[in-house]
Write a structure and sequence with these properties.
By secondary structure, the protein is of the alpha/beta class. It is built from twelve helices and ten strands. It is globular and about 60 Å long.
């Protein structure tokens, strides 16, 4: 399929590049760092060779979210967004942008989101999970009450929010002790992000802001497979609901979430996600440069789905959600 659009496609600036160094063996770092810092050369060749018309670019992880000093987090977010705006302006037909946000300061994050959407023409935000605020041990999730105004403004701006993974901090990761291979995309990324998404659902956020749209990568971080059990465990036991949200988790998942294929190129998993949320809420992505564009594209082009669904997932869902003028 030609004309595909991807929206979990990363880049790095000098200040954040080393954040990605641990995700590949040392021998591969030269190639990964080259991929992260290139936008208009090898990246475009990969896109052209694999029928990919556009990437919506976002900063690598954890980057801004792992900077406990609030002033520094704000500085790096602004610097990354300004740089990305300059790059997109060179080829707006091939690239668009997600804002990096200093969620350590909800007011600053709100201002930066508004600037990126209104002044820079960005298409939403991508945030790398929880933020460390003040000290490395102070972990903050976005169901916290101080984010109320941020979410209200996000809804008003019609700015989709991509909740991207990061690893848990070391002091919260005892379950992985002695098993470092479970960290990152193997398991810890999905577990961490799924819990964060469930916290947002349970908080009543989407009752207050029903038009808010959240994007999850990697075919939903395992949530489609588990959604029925989340809502129906011990169904014979009648107990008061233990969280503020008014609806079931599945309802929020089907009404306020979109899923991408980033880094999860398996047809059985895609079909499960389609059965849970529908093909209108799934979008193609590659997870470049951590995964290959050709791996994603070759799989998607031959996946056993209808051509109508392939076009929606590969292109038109992204055009509609992000209001792309292509």
């Amino acid at each position: 399929m030609n004309g595909k659009i991807g929206l979990e496609e990363h880049f790095a600036i000098a200040e954040t590049l080393q954040d990605s160094a641990g995700f590949v063996p040392g021998d591969y770092w030269k190639e990964l760092s080259k991929r992260l810092t290139d936008i208009h050369d090898g990246r475009l060749r990969e896109m052209d060779q694999n029928g990919m018309e556009m990437m919506i670019l976002s900063l690598n992880a954890p980057a801004v979210q792992a900077i406990p000093e609030t002033a520094k987090a704000i500085e790096i977010a602004i610097r990354a967004n300004d740089y990305l705006a300059e790059q997109v302006a060179k080829r707006p037909d091939r690239f668009q942008a997600f804002a990096a946000l200093p969620m350590q300061d909800p007011d600053a994050a709100t201002r930066e989101l508004e600037r990126c959407m209104k002044e820079l023409g960005f298409k939403g935000a991508l945030v790398n999970g929880f933020s460390q605020v003040g000290t490395p041990e102070n972990v903050v999730y976005y169901d916290a009450p101080q984010y109320a105004d941020f979410w209200a403004r996000s809804e008003a701006l019609d700015a989709p929010f991509y909740l991207h993974p990061r690893n848990p901090i070391a002091s919260w990761a005892q379950i992985y002790d002695g098993h470092p291979w479970l960290m990152g995309p193997t398991w810890a990324f999905g577990q961490e992000t799924a819990v964060h998404a469930l916290r947002l659902m349970a908080s009543g956020l989407f009752d207050r802001h029903p038009k808010l749209q959240i994007v999850l990568g990697h075919m939903g971080e395992g949530l489609p497979y588990s959604m029925w059990r989340i809502d129906n465990r011990n169904a014979w036991v009648k107990l008061p609901k233990a969280y503020p949200a008014k609806k079931t988790f599945a309802e929020y998942f089907q009404q306020n979430f979109h899923l991408t294929t980033s880094g999860n190129f398996r047809t059985q998993t895609l079909i499960d996600a389609m059965l849970e949320v529908g093909s209108d809420r799934i979008l193609f992505s590659t997870d470049w440069p951590f995964e290959n564009v050709d791996h994603a594209s070759n799989w998607f082009n031959s996946a056993s789905i209808s051509e109508a669904d392939r076009v929606k997932i590969g292109r038109t869902n992204a055009v509609n959600l992000f209001k792309l003028a292509i």
